[in-house]
């Protein structure tokens, strides 16, 4: 698998990055995990809209899903349309949520351009086996494990600390983990995000081979968050930056 970072800014788009979006490619199939604010423009540097194989949404906060509105427009009105419906996997109610976001009637909403599916525990998406687990967040949110051959990547989405993430990430080649909060900040909300120490601790307990830190808000430094994660995770730590490519 090849991982390309489309957007890695946490909570809001930043001055140098769109919000969350990650492109996984294998056997010529393109699976996108999240399509947050500003991501569609960056995505088109790597993949044209008709080349998208499928999209998986970790949850329905705007910094993880809102550029689906732009995708709907491109799929409906772009050159060469109509194109085959683009499969989108997400939490229950994704179709209605996105119809509301674009002020569409729920029937048909975006269903003529996008084929909506609700996450299952396991599903086959193109050449990938995709497993999900419910996370700890104010809205229904899922961590996503993508497997191809003998390689695996786990993406945390947004979550507070929890054992389900450790179990899903067990033995993974890569844990792509958010680190949106700072360690030892007494004002950190509970059940919302991970600190660098949380990210490192979950990676260590799961026995993952590599940790990639992402979803750092623009008011923090990515390098600082990654360095902090090294206090709890002894393995290799890398930083997600816009358009970075990782071989898995």
Automatic annotation (TrEMBL):
The lineage of its organism: Bacteria, Bacillati, Actinomycetota, Actinomycetes, Propionibacteriales. InterPro entries: Metallo-B-lactamas, RibonucZ/Hydroxyglut_hydro. Residues 18-215 form the Metallo-beta-lactamase domain. CDD domains: RNaseZ_short-form-like_MBL-fold. Pfam families: Lactamase_B_2. GO terms for molecular function: 3'-tRNA processing endoribonuclease activity. This is MBL fold metallo-hydrolase. PANTHER family: METALLO-HYDROLASE YHFI-RELATED, ZINC PHOSPHODIESTERASE ELAC PROTEIN 1. Keywords: Hydrolase.
């Amino acid at each position: 698998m090849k991982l390309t970072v489309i957007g890695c800014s946490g909570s809001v788009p930043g001055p140098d990055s769109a919000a969350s979006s990650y492109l996984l490619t294998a056997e010529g199939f393109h699976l996108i995990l999240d399509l947050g604010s500003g991501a569609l423009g960056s995505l088109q540097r790597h993949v044209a809209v008709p080349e998208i194989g499928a999209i998986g949404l970790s949850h329905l906060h705007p910094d993880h899903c809102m550029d689906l509105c732009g995708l709907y427009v491109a799929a409906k009105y772009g050159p060469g349309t109509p194109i085959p419906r683009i499969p989108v996997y997400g939490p229950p109610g994704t179709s209605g949520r996105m119809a509301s976001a674009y002020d569409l009637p729920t029937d048909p909403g975006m269903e003529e351009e996008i084929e909506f599916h609700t996450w299952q525990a396991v599903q086959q998406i193109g050449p990938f086996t995709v497993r999900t687990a419910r996370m700890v967040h104010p809205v229904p949110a899922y961590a996503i494990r993508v497997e191809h051959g003998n390689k695996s990547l786990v993406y945390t989405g947004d979550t507070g600390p929890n054992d389900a993430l450790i179990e899903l990430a067990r033995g993974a080649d890569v844990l792509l983990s958010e680190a949106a909060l700072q360690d030892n900040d007494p004002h950190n909300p509970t059940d919302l995000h991970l600190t660098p120490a949380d990210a490192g601790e979950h990676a260590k307990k799961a026995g993952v081979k590599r940790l990639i830190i992402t979803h750092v808000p623009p008011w923090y430094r990515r390098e600082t968050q990654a360095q902090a994660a090294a206090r709890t995770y002894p393995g290799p730590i890398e930083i997600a930056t816009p358009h970075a490519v990782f071989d898995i």
